[in-house]
């Protein structure tokens, strides 16, 4: 019960006691009305909650530091519409088990009111919550609350759901990475995918204003009765591999998250420049099929953690090695070595030096050290 309901309950009991002592009729009426309001609130909240089903749906992955919107579907299966419902999400305070609650929504909880739900109908709402650090997390426990008709008594029911949701990592945007561009050119890895006129067939699409008529695919045009254009692409260069050295003996919690941020920034930079990017670590892992290529890679980065077992892999052409510990002889298999220690240790002959705490764009934007 809320503080208002508790007040009505105390007033009703006191007034009925006074009516019994004085045998005054109007006091009986006032006391019964006060208690009746509390009883009516409890009965209405119970009826609304009784015939309502709520389900939590999988949310769209969010980004660290942003929000994740959790869809909740509420369906009415009992007689009469459901009014005064809302969905709550815990955030630092549990619902008190005792009768007095104080407020309909506990301090710090997120809530989303629902419009009236008719019998046999379904209403869906989304609750935006602050996304935690990158990773994969179990769905939180939601609560369906009914406070109809007067908001004096609120009855809640937990809504649990099996499943997990992803939070993608976020790395700061990189403007220029001169050491990466220079070495790519030197090693002949600067060919990249570029849609447009080229020699490799890509497919056909409908004609759009401005397309050259020499690109018309006449066979498809004749078959479908409207103009279609041949799409081609330029040559695609060799993929660059971003290798995260995740040996547990060289990591702390800070270096793990820092390494993931550096990898995310480099991946976004290379993809924006039209490069094909692959990710790897110990043991060898391939991003699962969860949508487009970049979505798979972000999901992989969200889950990656220090691994056990094998050390560094065999030679990889065009590899970018990220490690919080110096790797002797890295030139034998990696084209680049980004040294990411937990402090400002000597970078030695690493290609780039990016310790924990140093701004990533500033560190990666410097000229090569080796």
CATH class of the largest domain: Mainly Beta
CATH architecture of the largest domain: Sandwich
What is the radius of gyration? 31 Å
Question: How many H/I helical runs?
Answer: 7
The largest β sheet comes out as:
5 strands, parallel
Q: Estimate the mean pLDDT confidence.
A: 77
Helix share of residues?
25-40%
Helix-strand topology string:
HHEEEEEEEEEEHEHEEHEHEEEH
Walk across the major sheet and give the strand order: 14-13-15-16-17
Whole-number count of domains: 3
First and last CA, distance? 69 Å
**Molecular shape:** elongated
Q: How many E strands?
A: 17
Unreliable runs, pLDDT <50, ≥5 residues? Answer: 190-200, 233-237
Task: Find the CATH topology of the largest domain.
Answer: Immunoglobulin-like
Strand portion? 15-25%
What does the oligomeric state look like here?
single chain
Per CATH, the superfamily of the largest domain is Immunoglobulins
- Sheet/helix structural class: alpha/beta
Describe this protein's structure:
The protein has 370 residues and is α/β, with parallel strands linked by helices. Helix content is 26%, strand content 25%. The protein has three domains: 1-167, Immunoglobulins (Immunoglobulin-like), CATH 2.60.40; 195-235, no CATH class; 240-364, no CATH class. The chain has seven helices and 17 strands. It has a five-stranded parallel sheet with strand order 14-13-15-16-17. α1 packs antiparallel against α2 and α5 runs antiparallel to α6 (293-303). The chain is elongated.
């Amino acid at each position: 019960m809320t503080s208002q309901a508790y007040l009505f309950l105390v007033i009703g009991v006191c007034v009925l006691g006074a009516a019994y002592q004085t045998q005054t009729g109007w006091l009986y009426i006032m006391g019964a009305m006060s208690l009746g309001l509390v009883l009516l609130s409890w009965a209405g909240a119970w009826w609304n909650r009784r015939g309502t089903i709520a389900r939590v749906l999988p949310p769209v992955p969010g980004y660290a530091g942003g929000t994740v919107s959790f869809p909740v579907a509420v369906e009415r299966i009992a007689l009469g519409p459901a009014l005064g419902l809302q969905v709550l999400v815990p955030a630092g305070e549990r619902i008190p088990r005792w009768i007095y609650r104080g407020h309909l929504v506990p301090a710090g909880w997120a809530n989303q009111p629902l419009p009236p739900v008719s019998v046999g109908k379904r209403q869906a709402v989304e609750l935006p919550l602050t996304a935690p650090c990158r990773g994969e997390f179990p769905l939180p426990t939601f609560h369906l609350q009914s406070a109809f008709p007067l908001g004096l008594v609120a009855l809640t029911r937990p809504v649990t759901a099996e499943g997990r949701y992803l939070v993608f990592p976020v790395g700061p945007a990189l403007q220029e990475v001169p050491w990466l561009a220079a070495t790519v050119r030197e090693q002949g890895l600067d060919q990249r995918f570029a849609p447009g006129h080229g020699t490799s067939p890509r497919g056909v699409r409908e004609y759009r204003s401005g397309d050259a008529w020499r690109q018309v695919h006449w066979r498809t045009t004749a078959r479908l009765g409207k103009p279609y254009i041949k799409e081609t692409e330029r040559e695609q260069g060799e993929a660059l591999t971003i290798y995260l050295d995740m040996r547990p003996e060289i990591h702390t919690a800070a270096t793990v998250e820092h390494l993931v941020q550096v990898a995310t920034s480099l991946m976004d930079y290379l993809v924006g420049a039209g490069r094909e990017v692959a990710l790897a670590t110990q043991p060898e892992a391939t991003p699962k099929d969860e949508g487009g290529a970049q979505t798979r890679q972000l999901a992989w980065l969200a889950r990656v953690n220090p691994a056990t077992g094998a050390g560094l892999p065999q030679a990889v052409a065009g590899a970018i090695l990220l490690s919080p510990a110096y790797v002797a002889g890295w030139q034998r298999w990696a084209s680049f070595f980004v040294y990411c220690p937990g402090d400002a240790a000597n970078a030695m002959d690493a290609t780039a030096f990016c310790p924990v705490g140093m701004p990533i764009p500033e560190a990666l934007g410097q000229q090569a050290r080796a």
